Every structure is written in structure tokens, then in C-alpha cells.
Amino acid sequence: MKSESAYGGQMLHGIYGQMAGPGKLRDPLWNTIISPSDIETELLRTKAMRRLHYVRHAGPAALHTQHTSTRLQHTLGVFALIAYLAPDWPELRAAALLHDVGHGPFSHALEGIEGFDHHRRSEEELHAEEIRLILKRGRLHHASVLDLIEGTTASPLRNSEKILHADHLDSWVRSAASFGILPKPAPDLLRGFRLAGPHLEADADTAELTLRLILHEAHYHASPDNIAPVTVLRALTQRLIDAGGLLPSELGSLADDELLTLLRRHPVTAEETDRLLYRPQDLIVVRAGEPAPEHAYRHCLRKLYLALPLVQNGTASASLPSYPQLDELPGLLGEYFVFWKEEEK
Fold it and tell me: What are 229-249's pLDDT values in tens digits?
């Protein structure tokens, strides 16, 4: 018997979750049941969306940690949240599906190289013929979908007010689940949230739990597990471009393994790429001012993702028990240096 999924093709529902009845799918993290529309099915079948299944959500840290989920899994998790919270807002549902479509290989790791910007590339993908025509057939206003993706129009998906939204919520919960630190099942956590206008708000216990996840993610981003592979991969990719092994215009269209293949084949990057893949424990990370060799790679951590949850009943987030720990986070920002441990002779 053939099995069709919301993406089209046979057995593709396996990357999403369990079938939950005819035309319905169950998200494996949030345990919500979704009925994708025909237009949403078409969007999920596009090449641009399928590529996200081959892009790691955690970037190059996925090469040596258990945070190995993909951008498509995250995208579908965000879609599950939006379909649960705002099921009758078709532009928002489409925006949830398309919000990460511009990410390059290894997600945020290569942002800024040769001017690459995933926000600009997302806009280009939405204007590309395949997606543009699908939105037109669905009578979905292109500019409205883009405004929702960028947070210009505040919604449960995104906002410009540094208030918790579905995109970050899925990221933090997915990351915590990958690292085994999620203190309660994601569906139980979700029940603590509700919509307050265009924003999510949580009861005090859920807000506190979410804040602890936010703090954990901030420390993870500033950890050697994240900084070391990001720094080396950026340096190797720039070296590959400088050597003519990759055109800057092609960077954003690659999947992770396609970039790794190029890096492993080119003589100026092959040896160090293999070391990154098979000896990541040899990487050392220090703060600026600590001893480091002259050839160390420089990494500047400029921002952390700190969209905080609104608390129900007008309770100030500053009253949450973990709130004072936010004062420690600016100390994580700044310059780091990454270098390889000297090999024993």
C-alpha cells in the first residue's frame, strides 16, 4: 500500500511525524495534529523547502553534539505551533512554513560571509517563480506573508518587540530536548501558553521554565561546543571562496553535505576539514586576553537571542526567579580565539 504525506511522494511523512488520520499529521515534538491545506502541501513539496531537510538547525555543532535536528524539522515544529495557536490565519501558516527558507548551509554559521544574509535570500526565494505562483494560487498576499516572516507585522510567529514568539519557542524547546534537559514534555509546556493579541503569554510556572531554557541556550551559544566549529567552518569556507573553489553567489543554495564535500575535496581546505569532522576535541577556545597563538581564528559573539515570555495576569517578568541571571549574559559577548591543540610529535 502506498502512503502519501503532506509533502507529496511516498513515505515522506517519516521526517515529520506519525500519520494521524486521512490528510492529518502529528508533530512528534509538540504532539499536535495538523491538517495541511493544498497550498501548504505544495509549499512543502518545493525544492527550496526540501533543501532545509539537509541543513542542520544547530549549525556545525551538529557535527559533534546530539543537537542534530534539521531546519525542516524546526520549520515544521513552528508550523505546528502556529496551526495550533492561529489555525484560521492562512498567511501566517504560510509564513511559518517559509520563515527559514533562506537559510544557508549550517544555518547561522556562515551569515555575513561575502555579504550573505538569510533574510535577503528568504525574500528572493519568496519572489522566485515556484513559491510565488503557489502563493498566488492560494490567494495569499505576498507582501503580507513577507511582513509576517520578518516580524514587521507582529504575530505569534515573530515580532520586533523582543517578546517570545513561536520561532524561538520551538528552537529553545527543540534544543533542550536534544540535550536531554527539557524538564517536562513539550505538549505540557505548550498548555501553559495562550495568545494575548498577537503575542504569546504564559502562566508564571511556564514562563519561568521557558526562561531557564533561554538562559541555557545563551550559555550554549557562548560555549566551546558552539564557538569552535562555527569559527573553523567560517574560516574554511572563506578560504575555499578565496581559492576559487566556491562562488559567493552559490553559497546560500548549498546543503550542509554539499559544502562539506567541496571543503573535503579542495587542497586548501581538505586536511583541516577532516580534522574538524574527526578530531573536534582538538579545538581550544579562549577569551580575548588569554594566551593564544598568532594563527588563532578570531570569533566575535555580538548577540544572544533573548526574546522573553510575557507573563499572564500582568505579572512582571522581572519577578521570575531566574530573571536576575539575565544580568550575567552580557559577559558572554565579546571576542574569542579558536585554535588547534598542538599535535604530539
Answer: 999 999 999 999 999 999 999
**Side-by-side strand order, sheet with 297-301:** 283-287, 334-340, 297-301
**For residues 215-235, b (16+ Cβ closer than 10 Å) or e, as one string?**
bebbebbbebbbbbbbbbbbb
Strands 310-311 and 199-202: parallel
Confidence check: pLDDT of 22 > 70: no
The CA distances from residue 58 to 44, 61, 174, 178, 319, in Å, are 21, 6, 10, 10, 31
Residue 68 has pLDDT above 80, yes or no: yes
Residue 301, φ and ψ in degrees, nearest 5: -90, 110
- Would you state the cell numbers that stand for residue 92, as one nine-digit string? 501566517
**Residue 301: HSE in the Cβ half-sphere, 13 Å Cα cutoff:** 27
Residue holding cell 516572516? 149
- CA-based nearest residue to 86, from 173, 193, 174: 193
Q: Please name the residue ranges forming H helices in the chain.
A: 38-44, 47-51, 71-85, 90-98, 118-127, 129-137, 142-150, 166-179, 186-190, 204-221, 224-242, 256-265, 270-278
pLDDT at residue 12 is higher than 90: no
Look at residue 9 in the predicted model and tell me its pLDDT. Answer: 34
| Residue 291 to residue 108: CA distance in whole angstroms | 28
Amino acid, single-letter form, for residue 134: I
Partners of residue 70 on adjacent β-strands? 56
From residue 197, alpha-carbon distances to 86, 91, 147 in Å are 11, 17, 17
The alpha helices in 151-255, defined as continuous H runs, are 166-179, 186-190, 204-221, 224-242
